[in-house]
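Weekly structure sync, notes
Attendees: PL, DS, HV (note-taker this week)

Item 1: GntR family transcriptional regulator
DS walked through the input record. Source organism listed as Actinoplanes octamycinicus. Sequence as pasted into the shared doc:
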Amino acid sequence: MTVEAVRGGVPEHGRVPKYYVVKSQLLNLLAELGEGALLPAERDLAAAYGVARSTLRQAISELTMEGRLRAHRGRGTFVAAPKLVQPLALRSYTEALREMGRRPSRRVVTVETVPAGPLGADLGIAATDQVLHLERVLLADDEPLGLESTYLPVARFPGVMDGYDGTGSLYQHMIDRYALTYAAAVERIETVLASPREAMLLDTNPAQPMLLMQRTSSDADGHPIERVRSLYRGDRIGFETHLHP
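Item 1 (cont.): predicted structure, written out as tokens:
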């Protein structure tokens, strides 16, 4: 099997799938319509582009998966707002979103104490030691963006939920309560599909690609602070980092 070079989405042999041509035309249309505009009816677009409605739907489906369109049942399909772009850094979700002009909030789903199990190795504790599991939906302007599970060693951080309702910044709460310094982190990012439960909590399609981020943060002495699993909607948020030699 040979690997063909692709430039601008067009293979070297020049044969472009019809839906991809329609997708390119739709992108131009979205730029003209602007954010929040209602997409014209399928039958009108199919007639304008001279394609079958099934071809048009494939193009619209890809643009929806990419977060360029948003479908609302009973209302139609609309031009989506640009994705949020959050920096990869040791900082609060709250702080990052506020700098982007968005209103951050969180909805608590689960607060429980469980054995560390396999996570104990990352947290420097035994598998039988207890960890606090705090699961929250991350929101921006009340729109679900991510589902975050944080695991904290109970022995190291006793009473961590005292005076804290889980809706504010855990990062800032930990700094204020325990005088912590978040000095380093190891983070892994990959693409996954959400489980039915996760998709329901994030108000998204289970077939929608998600960004899974798993982070272990450490203090200035190199001791693990927390293990965090964050699942983000790939159609609504992206991440960036600055690299230096």
